[in-house]
């Protein structure tokens, strides 16, 4: 009887332990499945968020980015573009006229600048040299000075032995030669001033003829065709006028400098002639 009871107890314990083990296994499986489900839902949500994030980032620049404004062309770029549109033929000739005119302008300005001298100081030095060392000392003073006034004084002193009349004539003749040197090249500047707009007008006329030829070939008046041809034709005139204006300004400056130097030459020549007359009276 005890064996039976012990067997029954052992069987109950085994069955109870098996049930608990199954319950524990089932609970552990449920926890594992719940954890997997949560992980899967987390991965799906994170992947969805990760997928949405680039889309939002890609959409954000599209929303925030605005079309960049077109940069304005610089003045030199606009000038170069118009120069090319005007055609290399007449535009190149007008450019050559500008370059040659400016070269002559620079040379004349430098020459006239070096021709300017302090005539009052030179007259004092010549007077002191005449009173101290005579004509030869005054000639040495003139040799050491630059400018047309010094040249005129030297030629007048060189003809001192021939009389006052010869001194006067030599001053007049040498003054004319020096004035011619001052005016050298100025006529070329005036030529380029007249030539530049004439070339521009010629390019305009030729451009208009080409525009009408294009209209005739097309058989219809196209506004864009007519406007483009007229624009190209007028560019040569614009550049020709610009060149003429630039050279005209420098031409007037050079003429004013020449007039100033010539007036000072005449005043200095009169004072020098009076000085020679007084020196001759003293030596008689």
TrEMBL record:
Region annotation (Disordered) ranges: 21-71
GO biological process, any: protein import
Signal peptide as annotated in the record: 1-21
Transmembrane regions: 88-114, 188-212, 232-255
Mode of membrane association: Multi-pass membrane protein
Residue spans of biased composition, Low complexity class: 35-70
Metal-binding is among the record's keywords: no
Comp. bias (Polar residues): 21-34
Domain MotA/TolQ/ExbB proton channel: residue ranges: 148-266
Regions annotated as coiled coil: none
UniProt keyword list: Cell membrane, Membrane, Protein transport, Signal, Transmembrane, Transmembrane helix, Transport
Subcellular location: Cell membrane; Membrane
GO (cellular component) term, any one: plasma membrane
Record-stated family: Belongs to the exbB/tolQ family.
UniProt protein name: MotA/TolQ/ExbB proton channel family protein
Organism: Phaeocystidibacter marisrubri
């Amino acid at each position: 009887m005890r064996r039976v009871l012990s067997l029954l107890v052992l069987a109950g314990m085994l069955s109870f332990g098996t049930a608990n083990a199954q319950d524990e296994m089932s609970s552990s499986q449920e926890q594992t499945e719940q954890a997997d489900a949560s992980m899967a839902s987390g991965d799906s949500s994170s992947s969805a968020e990760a997928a949405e994030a680039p889309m939002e980032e890609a959409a954000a620049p599209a929303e925030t980015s605005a079309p960049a404004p077109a940069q304005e062309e610089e003045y030199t770029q606009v000038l170069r573009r118009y120069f090319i549109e005007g055609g290399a033929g007449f535009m190149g000739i007008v450019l050559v006229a500008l370059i040659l005119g400016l070269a002559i302008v620079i040379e004349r300005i430098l020459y006239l600048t070096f021709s300017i001298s302090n005539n009052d100081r030179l007259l004092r030095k010549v007077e002191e040299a005449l009173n101290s060392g005579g004509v030869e000392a005054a000639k040495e003073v003139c040799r050491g000075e630059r400018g047309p006034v010094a040249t005129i004084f030297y030629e007048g002193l060189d003809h001192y032995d021939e009389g006052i009349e010869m001194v006067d004539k030599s001053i007049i003749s040498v003054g004319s030669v020096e004035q011619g040197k001052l005016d050298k090249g100025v006529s070329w500047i005036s030529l380029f001033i007249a030539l530049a707009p004439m070339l521009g007008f010629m390019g305009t006329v030729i451009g208009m003829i080409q525009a009408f030829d294009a209209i005739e070939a097309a058989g219809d008046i196209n506004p864009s065709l007519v406007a483009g041809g007229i624009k190209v034709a007028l560019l040569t005139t614009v550049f020709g006028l610009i060149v003429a204006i630039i050279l005209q300004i420098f031409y007037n400056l050079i003429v004013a400098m020449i007039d100033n130097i010539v007036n000072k030459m005449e005043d200095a020549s009169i004072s020098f002639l009076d000085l020679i007359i007084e020196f001759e009276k003293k030596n008689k």
